Structure formats: C-alpha cells, structure tokens
Amino acid sequence: MSDAAALKAKLGLNVFKPLREPHIRIRAGMEKDPRLRPAVRICPAGLYSENEKGEIVLTIDGCLECGTCRLGCGMDVLEWNYPEGDTGVQFRFG
Amino acid sequence: MEKFDVIVVGAGLAGLAAAYTLAGNGVEVLILERGDYPGAKNVSGGRLYVNPVRKYFPELWDGAPTERHIVHEGISLMAKERSLTMDYHGRELREEPHQSYSVLRSKFDRWLAEKAESKGAMLLSKTRVDDVIYEQDKITGVMAGGDGLNADVVIACDGVLSLVSEKAGIRSAGKPHDYAVGIKELIALESGVINERFNLEGDEGAARLYVGQVTKGRFGGGFLYTNRESVSLGIVIGIEEMLNDATIDAPALIEDFKKNPEIGGLVRGGTTVEYSAHVIPEGGLKSLSALYGDGILVAGDAAGLALNMGFTVRGMEYALASGYFAALAAIRAKEKGDFSAETLSAYKTLLEDSFVLKDFSAFKDTPDVLRNQRIFNHYPEMIGGLLKDLYSVSDHPKETIYQTLKRNLSMGEIWSIIKDMTGVRRI
Q1: Structural domains in chain A (count)
Q2: What is the CATH classification number for the domain harbouring A21?
Q3: If DSSP codes are grouped into helix, strand and coil, which group holds residue B323?
C-alpha cells in the first residue's frame, strides 16, 4: 500500500460527518504562494497536494481540525474556520 | 434574546470545570460545544496529573473514567540505529491516591459534562460559536447558529486556536514558533497483552517519551501511553521546525515511529482504531494569550495553558484549574455586578497565586532551553554510540571502560556538554 493509500485508510477509521461546505479554503490567487507550499508536508491528514499547474489544492474531506495549516501557513493564504456543528470529525476516543 | 449569567464556549476540560464550578455555586451557565458530544473534537496524549487539582473538585474523582494509573515512567533516547531506554518505577507511583492517569477524552469529557449537568449547567452540543456580540466595547454574548445568546461573562475555552478570543480582539493568530502538533494513533490491544508487554498488573499503566530521531532530530518527541484496552501512540513536533525542514513529512513521522524496532514489538498485533491530530501550545509563560477582557475570560489551551516540562508534559490539569479559577472570577464579578476587565482581572491573580502560573513562571525558560537542537540530534547519537562501544565485544582485545569513555567524550565534547548544562540550570 502506498503511503497516501495507507493514510487514507487510517482516516477511514475515523467517524466523519459530511461537511455542508469547506471550512478551510485557499484564498483566491494564493494557490502558488510559498507560504502555502509546506501544507503539503505538514498536514497530518495529507489533505494538501500540488497539481500539474504547480498550484496547491486542498481536499477538505478527512480534515482532523487540528490547526496545523492555520498556524503553519497563516491567514494570508487560508480562510480558516471550524466546521459547523453536526459536521466534521467526531472522535470516539480522543 | 436569551440571557445567561455565563456562557462557556467549548466543553473541554477548562469549559466543563468552569461550568461545573459555576453551576455548583448556583450560577446560570450555558456550555456551547461544536462536537456531537463533549470530547468529540478533543485530542490529548493523554495523561492527566490529578494531584494539583484534586482539592478544587473534592467530590469529583470517584468514578472518573480514567484508563490506567501510571506506575512506569519511561524515556527513550532514539538514535538512528540504536536506542537507550530508562524505565523508572517507584513504590509511590503504586500508592493511592495515584498521581497520574492515562485518559481518553471522548469518555472523560462526556463524564465530566454529565457531572456539570447534574449541578445544573446546560449543555448545547453540535453548536459552533460564529462570533461574539459587542456592546459598547464590551463582550455581551455570542452568535451561534444564527442566534444571539447574551451573558454577563463569556468564558472562552475553545481550545488552542481560540477563535473566540481572536474575534473578541484580545489575541491575534498564533506564531508557528509557539506551537507544536501532536499526531496520534489509538491502537487497540487486549488488556492482558498490554499488562504482559509493559510488566503491569490490573489497572497499572506505563508511559514513555521518545526523544531524538523520531522527530528527525528536531524539537518534539514521541509518546506512548497505555490505556485499558489500547495504546495511545503519537508524535509531537514543533510547527516551525516542520516549516524549516523540507525533509519532514508529518504523516510519515508516525508511520516511521511505528516501524521503529523499539516500538514495533510493543504494538504488534494491535489494530489502529482512530487517527487524530491537534495543535498544542508550546511557548510557556512568554507566549500566554490574553486571559481576560471586558466581559470575557479565557481558560485552558485557549489561553496557552499547556507546558512542556521535559520529563512531564502537562496541559489537562491546567485546563481544569484555569476553568475553576475563571468560574471563581465570574462569581465574584456577579456579586459585584461588574463584569469589566478590571474586575475580571481577579482571574489572573487567582492563577498567579495557584500552581498554574507558579509552574509557568518557574518553567518560563524551559521552552527555549528545550529547543536546543543538540537534545534531539546530538545526545541520542552520542550516548547511543558510547553504549554501543561499552557493550561491544569484537575480535580485538577489549578496550578498558576508561579508554572507551575517553574516546567517546573528547575535550570538545565535554566542553559542549558543560555549555549545555548552563542551560539546564534555567530549567
């Protein structure tokens, strides 16, 4: 199993309630900003990746709501909120 | 608009401790929690030291859903190809009252919420707080789910990022230097297997910290805590360190950790049942966030009240205590009928007079000293290398112990150790 597949399998163990809308967004025009680049490595859920155009993209499903990207990349490049109530990860053990 | 004496944002340990104390004193309190239940959004290592907070909640502890009381305290220096583990075991750790327990937050927080509710606190789950309400520069409530909810005091216990304090204008977004992220797997294992592997009996538990290569020689470490029928295994690493080292991949750190021969045998046959992560305050006293403002108090991680003391890593008892003191400050403000920052500043005094800010003050330099890279990249290799030579028997005649020490500890090395020891005096 590739690292990405193994990570996906681990995220699959968690209980997630579907998000009604993404609670974290890359700000328009910031997709190639160097401050965003580390997100690909530092997100514990591996939700950021680089596409063929060299832009960073975010797939929000599987977000652990940990806050790493908010602190690591900053609010200039990210719009960041917690998901609405009744959505997102629900830890059974914590 | 509905009006409460106090609104607590976040049903974690700080918020629940505040609500429990407030409700117990006849104060009308509403707790807003964005998770489906208290603990649903919380992640902790998780280890709770009960002694410092026992007296603030005297009736509370019987029946608390703790996992195991810790009787083995281990620390492992992890070099690239070798490791050294010290395992401390003392009779006092087996004696009641036990000083520390492993806990699982979604169990523990739900139980504490029931206790707070039994005192009369109201809990509204599945509810995110979107904003604060200002009236003449004073916080007078919160907006949640499109509704305004008013209160004399809002206690922000919304965790390490505390968006509520940000919206209230009493703190700005944190800096990477002051935070780490903890990444954890909960690995289910039968209790009998745990007891055999860690030399435990009954509800005894073991805790281990791992320093060195587990974080690629950067600030942070690994941890392992035994629960009743699972092991909490995780990595903590500084956010700034991750930004500065392009070879670090966060999800890979914990995978590599699990594969390390030192760990592999301890969790063999276990099944990972949950994968979690959360940011942790690491800045200590210098990086504490605002504690109060007009109509608002801040407690727990939201105020930055977590402390890495090297051999012990603390947070949950500071959350419980700060929630308790925030409640006391709110009760005094209610008696005076004055909820200004000046009156609420009594909270800071209460924290200063307690173990909370005394600990933060005594350990104020620890975060800086612990950032000495040599702790993570040099000493594990140096000490591992020395032990390798002491234990090795080759086809050459064996070197004396003194010769081995002298070869491993050059004058330059000793000089560097002395320099590092001057840092140790500050912790």
Answers
A1: 1
A2: 3.30.70.20
A3: helix
pTM beyond 0.90: the answer is yes
Residue A65 CA to residue A14 CA, distance in Å, equals: 13
A2: closest CA of chain B, how far (Å): 11
Decide if B41 and A17 are in contact by the 8 Å CB cutoff: no
CA distance B155 to chain A (A): 18
Chain-chain contact of B243 with A86 (C-beta, under 8 angstroms): no
Distance CA B12, CA B14 (A): 6
B-chain residues near A1 (CB < 8 A) = none
Contact (CB<8Å) B246/A13: no
Interchain contact, B173 vs A70, CB within 8 Å: yes
B181 bridge partner residues: B237, B279
- A43 and chain B in contact, CB less than 8 A: yes
The tokens describing A93, both together, are 């053990």
Return the domain boundaries, chain B.
2-65+104-171+289-353, 372-424
Print pLDDT tens along chain B (427 aa): 789 999 999 999 999 999 999 999 999 999 999 999 999 999 999 899 999 999 999 989 888 999 999 999 999 999 999 999 999 999 999 999 999 999 999 999 999 999 999 999 999 999 999 999 999 989 999 999 889 999 999 999 999 999 999 999 999 999 999 999 999 999 999 999 999 999 999 999 999 999 999 999 999 999 999 999 999 999 999 999 999 999 999 999 999 999 999 999 999 999 999 999 999 999 999 999 999 999 999 999 999 999 998 888 899 999 999 999 999 999 999 999 999 999 999 999 999 999 999 999 999 999 988 888 899 999 999 999 999 999 999 999 999 999 999 999 999 899 999 988 888 888 8
Q: Is B287 an 8 Å CB contact of chain A?
A: no
- Which residue in this structure is represented by tokens 């909270």? B347
Domain span at A36: 3-89
- Work out the minimum CA distance from A10 to partner chain B, whole angstroms: 6
Distance from chain centroid for Cα B174: 17
Domain B2-65+104-171+289-353, architecture per CATH: 3-Layer(bba) Sandwich (3.50)
Residue showing tokens 């699990």: B258
